[in-house]
């Protein structure tokens, strides 16, 4: 067995690998970029080596630097995690040449399965069912257009070296093909260094089902059943579950048998995931094989009781598989939700910034192994703590919340409840949106397809889950707490303070807010005596008991319980960050932005006169020119950020007056990219 391994990754997966390795008595080496100097994986591993600058190409993707770090520290093996170098055949080869064990499959298996087209050609002789498509080497426009006509529309363009939802486009008709090809090839080149694409017939309303396989160096191959990953947006998985809902035992056996055949076709060793599409008729088709540990591996650990990272390490050390197919069984049901720093209300654009508050009171981190999830049934694999920053250089996932229960309904309820208890303040995030997905009737029923999220109501169409009068009252109470904070009016007992606004019965105080795209005005008066708060709100009154108040790192917070009204008996948690207010009542959440009079600009409230970058990135396309008349919603400019392409649309009708930044420019958040003529802008 190894005595020291290097973990060639960052974030939650680096922490996850470290936890198992150290439990096995193995010393660990972390690597990091200068942007991750304070990261938790750096602190928790036994040693750490800085690879270089924040850009992945200068650090986590630099093969020479990673190999040098392993040699420097005496690491006998390297675990690549997922992403970065995990499916890079050149890296696996470099490890072999350096006499360092690569904890993963052989070079040839990575090379074959790393190309979606070559993978299909490899497994076809084994009778594995394939989706009709074109997987050839000729990448000329004429050939791709001809093959697209042969396959028929709608079809999918996929980067052959793709992964993580990148390098995929859906094309509905021939007229859209060329533009989609160029965009897909450009994104594939930027993300994977390879612009080669393939074409596939789009399966209508498919489910995405994948099977976890393991193989050792002694010829043994097993599967650990399937996961349903159909809850996707932009081809990126959002919530995964195991086992897949509604499969017959015959289907489950066929999935497992086929996945094992795929692994055997390339003499596979280690952990791998074979991905399929399941159509409405019950037929399934091979898509690809991921030659690494998957982000969603915890749900398989939860239902089987095995530590898959331990399996990986043992197999790489030459040990046989610790279980046979006959001894692997499904126990209960598990869900995993991916926690992202992103803004669901703006097309899930990635968000950056400092997480001022990260709190998970009832989640237990890294419950792996035989007893996985059997106690609390909640697991949180995260890379975050209060005070850490979300960087623009890497994927914006900050953690994964995993739940287990004996039944699917119980596991899903546990997931929704746990999401309500998490607190992530300081950056936009998808926690409330994920909970909404859990409660969506089609998702809750199971058997949903990959189009579910596209069919869901947008965030701006979803009504507030908290009674409006209660929202108003909580906003008023939060303003009182903020006033105490900003005025420095603290005593030994902060609950024993009178209303910070008035000392006697006053007219109601007015505050203005924005709630998503909606303006909101509240009229409240707060009177606090001891631990009891009475909030008068537009003719109604609400009484609450205050249980805590605190101020830290720029946050003002007040907690308690509601005694009257439609949410009587519910707890509340009100958290300020700048002018942003998070209102948590029971399991529900509403986010408001206070229109602070000191911060309101003179131009607010008027029509937009430009388009600004919503995040740092690089301009990759300008779709209009100076003098063009544009319509509201028309695509104007393309911005690449966090390895994904984002198209920015016009917020109004207008005439383009200036385009300050051409293709290739790097821009910061808030930089104006398009300026409209104010005289000609349609009102």
TrEMBL record:
Q: Which UniProt keywords apply?
A: ATP-binding, Biotin, Ligase, Nucleotide-binding
Cofactor(s), by name: biotin
Superkingdom of source:
Bacteria
Give one Pfam family: Biotin_carb_N
According to the entry, every stretch annotated as the ATP-grasp domain falls at 120-317
Q: Among its keywords, does the record have S-adenosyl-L-methionine?
A: no
The Lipoyl-binding domain is annotated at 601-677
Limits of the Biotin carboxylation domain: 1-458
UniProt-listed PANTHER family: CARBOXYLASE:PYRUVATE/ACETYL-COA/PROPIONYL-COA CARBOXYLASE (PTHR18866), METHYLCROTONOYL-COA CARBOXYLASE SUBUNIT ALPHA, MITOCHONDRIAL-RELATED (PTHR18866:SF33)
Q: What is this protein called?
A: ATP-grasp domain-containing protein
